Amino acid sequence: MGNAVPEAEIDFEALQKTLIAAISAQQAGDEAGAEALFRQVNQTVPGHPAAAYSLGVIALRRGDSDAARYWAKTGLEATTSYAPLYFLAGAAVRAAGGDADVVVQFYDRAVALQPDYLEAHVNAGVVLRDSLRHRDALERFQRALAVNPRYPTALVNAGILLTEFKRNEQAIEMFARLLEVDPDYEYGLGLLLFEKMHICDWTDYEPMKARVLAANREGKRSCKSLSMMAFSDDYRDHQRAAQTFAEHLYGPSDKPLWRGERYRHERIRLAYISPDLREHPVGHLIAGVIEHHDRTRFELIAISLGIEDQSRIRARMRAGFDRFIDVQRLNAVQIARLIRELEVDILVDLGAFTADSRPDVLGQRPAPVQVNYLGYCGTMGASYMDYLIADRQVVPPEHWGGYQEKIVYLPDSYLPTDGSIAVPPAPTRGQHELPETGFVFCAFNHDFKISPDIFAIWMRLLQRTPGSVLWLMSRHPLSQRNLCAYAQAHGVDPARLVFAKRLPKVEDHLARYRIADLFLDTFPYNAHTTAADALMAGCPLVTCMGNAFPARVAGSLLHQVGLPELATRSLGEYEELAGALAADAPRLAGIRTRLEAARSTSPLFDTARYCRNLEAAYFAMWRKQELTVADAL
């Protein structure tokens, strides 16, 4: 710590002036000048708490977590009663990729000394959230709000976690309060609008959406990239939102973990990283692929970010990989280091910006080849993602300019299905509270995909088709209440909306599609897994193909089963075709017959074929990387 000046010789007035000058320099952005002055203070009074803290903060800003830990230790050796030093210690351990529990303990020590330390409350919550301890994290954000109900960082984080718990009304309240405090808070308006869509609350939908889109086009942080998929059918909007989001929160590390090393494995070491290797749409889609991988050519590693749910899918996943590694309690630095130590050749991200995914892991470049695949239907807008797996329908060549990644086409659909599933015979309508007669329109998409425009079309179809009903998957009481109210406003008896219940077995869920007459897709965010389910079960589907990946998936699937005529190009065509099919039983029966035949002939349902095509894509990526590295040697 240097030679201390005896206390009797310290000029405390001069010391205070130096400290004030250092703080002023720091506030003015003169970090080098501030550092020199803080060091003067520390030289005079070794371990001076304010100086040690500030020197640690400066070290963190330049990415030197070791120096930050040194300054925290130096300060705490001099005094144990200065809360910011514990905060600094926690931040330093976190930056170094240390244990989450240790980080939280340091933040808690800071709060114990200073109960109104808002940053410590919130940072502890963020660490707990990243470790998937969501309830503990929410409690920390709520503690911060008890101190200051208008603290923006706590409001936004509490709101996001409340969405995870499906406490939508409370989440909406948080986001509304956030915008009252700061109308321009980053992502705030998009968060509020997207959460309202989750309960089909379309109050002020159009003006709010217009503001979100305008701000995004101006380069502002108006909404998360996943939300943009529900707001816009322009792939350029999606690209802007993704790039803004990635650059702001998940930028590339200036110290990549993989630095051009050439691995020499007998098999290509292929790792899938995902929070959804469990009972989840992604889990259902990928399970069959994992089981069909050629183990003589590929060594399979699961990097599981998500919960252990004891499901059948989870059991299949554990059995399907050579190594299944649960990393849900590790932070991004630890996970990235683990992947690098495993010498993974190809790292496939199945989640991107979806819930509980960890793009910050890939930002550290732990693998030579990094791939965006399946779970997220669009570009990640990040320089560290090398490839996106697609097909010619979802990403036509004229859209390539909207993708940061290089596009790799699979010859059939990019979306896999699990061909091992046998769809049971159709149940009775009565078992699902449907009328025994009359046409059944089915729309099993998530609530947030239902827009006012598409719902208005559905209501006109009900009016046009006497005795028909609309079978929806909405499970939230608020969504059901709102949809019934909107139906009433359109002049449709709310009793004609039937809400399906959740079924525990995927086979039973698929079987009920057999008693629906026609699946109505959403727009601009199509059905994806849901569309594949409907087609697998033999239920015809009408979609509208748009101008961005999310609005083109169902159309891609229809091409694969030989029914491209059901993929319309405008909402007007969509409405007309759906209405015509509902009125023409022989025509619809013919389509159903063709769809049933496709179950045994279409490549969409051939998981083994799909996996061979996917492996060919992986091999091409690996081979190109090997040649590139060899050229550099």
Can you describe what's shown?
The mean pLDDT is 96. Among the domains are: 1-96, Alpha Horseshoe (Serine Threonine Protein Phosphatase 5, Tetratricopeptide repeat); 268-409, 3-Layer(aba) Sandwich (Rossmann fold); 430-605, Rossmann fold, CATH 3.40.50. The longest helix has 26 residues, at 607-632. The protein starts with 11 loop residues before the first helix and ends with a helix. It has 26 helices and 13 strands. It is globular and about 100 Å long. Strands 3-2-1-4-5-6-7 form a 7-stranded parallel β-sheet, with helices on one face. It has a 6-stranded parallel β-sheet with strand order 10-9-8-11-12-13, with helices on both faces. It has 633 residues and is of the alpha/beta class. It has helices at 12-27, 31-44, 49-61, 65-78, 83-95, 100-113, 118-130, 134-147, 152-164, 168-181, 188-198, 205-217, 225-231, 235-249, 281-292, 312-320, 332-341, 359-362, 452-464, 477-489, 506-512, 529-536, 553-560, 571-582, 585-601, 607-632; strands at 268-274, 298-304, 323-326, 346-349, 369-372, 387-390, 406-409, 440-443, 469-472, 497-499, 518-520, 541-544, 567-568. 49% of the residues are buried.
